Amino acid sequence: MLTKVQIRECLDTFAEMFPDAHCELVHENPFELVIAVALSAQCTDALVNKVTKNLFKKYKKPEDYLAVSLEELQSDIKSIGLYRNKAKNIRSLCETLIEKYNGEVPREHEELTKLAGVGRKTANVVVSVAFGVPAIAVDTHVERVSKRLGICRWKDSVLEVEKTLMRKIPKDEWSQTHHRLIFFGRYHCKAQSPKCDICPLLHLCREGQKRMKKEKKHA
DNA sequence: CTCCCGATAT
DNA sequence: ATATCAGGAG
């Protein structure tokens, strides 16, 4: 496990590598963000953006998603995968927004998680990106990077990872760090072929050092 | 824990 | 061919 000073070094390095990391899901309002994040489960941001480009032209309000057949909505998001669940969730989510929230996206985390297809991670993204509330959404990248670097433990659950990160990172840096962790994971510390050979944090990364040794043996 | 699932990288 | 992708629900 990394020390407080070592974690500070990680945060500073993330800042140098990705100074303007941000939410890459294209959206113009909280409603579009909720839809985009709900669609993004087990799918790349790039693909979500490709689909929402047309989707957000066709569907502007919650009512619009309820005006078409389930099959039509499925077909509109099919290329994203998990499309049956996601189409069902979006319809249910829109019904709830209309019935309980006057068609608006609620600002409270607890209310957000009551929406179909919106779990803890998605709610964190929405409160953080749409409403400016400090939060750390732990997705596959944040989890992988935190575990590889030793910011948290390998056996930690997603919730434990989030708690650890909140404990070890100053609150006013949560949202920024969250996006930098994602960029670091997405473009540098990748799942399949991490760039350990050029990583500025290799000296404090057990996992990276292990990988480099293996690579040497293979060569 | 399993299932949902197409697109893309390796 | 297989792993992975801004996860959530049952």
TrEMBL record:
One of its GO terms (molecular function) is class I DNA-(apurinic or apyrimidinic site) endonuclease activity. Binds 1 [4Fe-4S] cluster. It is an enzyme of class 4 (lyase). Gene3D superfamilies: Helix-hairpin-Helix base-excision DNA repair enzymes (C-terminal), Hypothetical protein, domain 2. Its cofactor is [4Fe-4S] cluster. SUPFAM superfamilies: DNA-glycosylase (SSF48150). It catalyses: 2'-deoxyribonucleotide-(2'-deoxyribose 5'-phosphate)-2'-deoxyribonucleotide-DNA = a 3'-end 2'-deoxyribonucleotide-(2,3-dehydro-2,3-deoxyribose 5'-phosphate)-DNA + a 5'-end 5'-phospho-2'-deoxyribonucleoside-DNA + H(+). Its EC number is 4.2.99.18. The keyword Chaperone does not apply. [4Fe-4S] cluster binds at residues 189, 196, 199, 205. The keyword DNA repair applies. Residues 39-187 form the HhH-GPD domain. Keywords: 4Fe-4S, DNA damage, DNA repair, DNA-binding, Endonuclease, Glycosidase, Hydrolase, Iron, Iron-sulfur, Lyase, Metal-binding, Nuclease. Belongs to the Nth/MutY family. DNA repair enzyme that has both DNA N-glycosylase activity and AP-lyase activity. The DNA N-glycosylase activity releases various damaged pyrimidines from DNA by cleaving the N-glycosidic bond, leaving an AP (apurinic/apyrimidinic) site. The AP-lyase activity cleaves the phosphodiester bond 3' to the AP site by a beta-elimination, leaving a 3'-terminal unsaturated sugar and a product with a terminal 5'-phosphate. This is Endonuclease III. It comes from Metabacillus niabensis. The lineage of its organism: Bacteria, Bacillati, Bacillota, Bacilli, Bacillales. The gene is nth.
